[in-house]
């Protein structure tokens, strides 16, 4: 009996702590540690948006379990920046555990088998798929999301990485630029088009710190308070020493998820 009461008290404490967690939830942006890949959770009390699903569903769903409150274990919108496995593969498990209402994809189509299998799975679950145009704005109670890339009129001449969805997220206290796997050419096009509008507090370094991204001009235009390199064990040499050096030359502090783990900004 005593044991049962103890268990009841314990479960009540657990429920109350979960309710308080949900009520106190503020805007939170988490650069999840999903290994070699990208996944960023933009959570606020009434809506959660996931930018990319990383390479591994188990790692992703575990991380989301920790971040999402028990009474609102939901991802409302999943944005898949482009059709690379290190950005979409975790979505297979995500769709089973936290089925989103909408999946936003790049307008650039890919014939890659895994990507096509994922689209089939999303359709089979009756989840809406939207290819959002550049210039679109998504507004939630806590933030504005500006879709800056890819340009629809050049879509056929772009490769997969260049067609990554790039988002600027503006929240009341901070701003973020999530840049997928774009290369220097795309960075240059973005600077030409948006210039100072690219400036944010937190920059998700494109392409896991590849040397073919994060040009000096791009870093100088954005000048973030902090750059985040989402990266894990890989055979491509990410993050590249040249990128690290460019960050240092511009006196930009950076965070590496492979060395420092996940990072949450509140
Ligand atoms: Zn990637």
In short:
The chain is α/β, with parallel strands linked by helices. The protein has helices spanning 2-24, 57-67, 85-88, 91-97, 113-124, 184-194, 216-222, 241-249, 257-260, and strands at residues 28-31, 40-44, 47-51, 77-80, 102-105, 128-131, 137-140, 143-149, 166-170, 175-178, 202-204, 226-229, 254-256, 263-265.
Question: Any overview of this molecule?
Answer:
With 266 residues, the protein is an alpha/beta fold. The chain is globular, with a radius of gyration of 19 Å. The chain has one domain (25-265): Metallo-beta-lactamase, Chain A. The termini are far apart. The longest helix is centred in the N-terminal third of the chain and has 23 residues, at 2-24. 33% of the residues lie in helices and 22% in strands. Strands 6-5-4-3-2-1-14 form a seven-stranded mixed sheet, covered by helices on one side.
Task: Name the descriptors.
7-stranded mixed sheet, 9 helices, 266 residues, Metallo-beta-lactamase, Chain A, 33% helix, alpha/beta, 14 strands, single chain
Assembly classification: single chain
CATH class division = Alpha Beta
What is the averaged pLDDT score?
Answer: 91
Number of helical segments? 9
From the alpha-carbon coordinates, what is the Rg to the nearest angstrom? 19 Å
Largest sheet: 7 strands, mixed
Q: Can you tell me the number of structural domains? A: 1
What is the structural class? alpha/beta
Please state the overall shape, judged from the principal axes of the Cα atoms. Answer: globular
- Here the CATH topology equals Metallo-beta-lactamase, Chain A
Helix content: 25-40%
Provide the list of bound ligands, each named once: zinc ion
Order of helices and strands: HEEEHEHHEHEEEEEHEHEHEHE
For the termini, the CA-CA separation is 43 Å
CATH homologous superfamily grouping = Ribonuclease Z/Hydroxyacylglutathione hydrolase-like
What CATH architecture would you give? Answer: 4-Layer Sandwich
The poorly predicted ranges are: none
């Amino acid at each position: 009996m005593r044991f049962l009461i103890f268990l009841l008290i314990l479960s009540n404490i657990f429920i109350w702590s979960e309710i308080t967690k949900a009520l106190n939830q503020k805007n939170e942006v988490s650069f999840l540690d999903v290994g070699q890949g990208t996944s960023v959770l933009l959570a606020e009390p009434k809506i959660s948006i996931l930018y990319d699903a990383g390479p591994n569903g188990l790692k992703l769903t575990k991380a989301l379990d920790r971040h999402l409150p028990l009474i609102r274990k939901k991802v409302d919108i999943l944005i898949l920046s482009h059709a690379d496995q290190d950005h979409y593969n975790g979505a297979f498990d995500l769709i089973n555990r936290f089925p989103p209402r909408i999946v936003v994809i790049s307008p650039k189509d890919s014939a890659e088998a895994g990507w096509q299998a994922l689209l089939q799975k999303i359709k089979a679950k009756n989840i809406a798929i939207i290819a959002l145009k550049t210039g679109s704005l998504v507004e939630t109670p806590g933030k504005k999301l500006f879709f800056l890339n890819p340009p629809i009129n050049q879509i056929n001449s772009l490769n997969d990485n260049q067609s990554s969805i790039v988002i600027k997220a503006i929240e009341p206290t901070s701003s973020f630029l999530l840049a997928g796997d774009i290369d220097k050419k795309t960075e240059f096009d973005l600077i030409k088009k948006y210039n100072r509008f690219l400036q944010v507090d937190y920059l998700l370094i494109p392409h896991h710190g590849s040397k073919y991204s994060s040009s000096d001009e791009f870093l100088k235009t954005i000048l973030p308070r902090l750059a985040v390199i989402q990266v894990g064990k890989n055979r491509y040499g990410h993050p590249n020493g040249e990128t690290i050096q460019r960050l240092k030359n511009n006196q930009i502090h950076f965070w590496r998820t492979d060395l420092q783990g996940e990072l949450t900004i509140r």
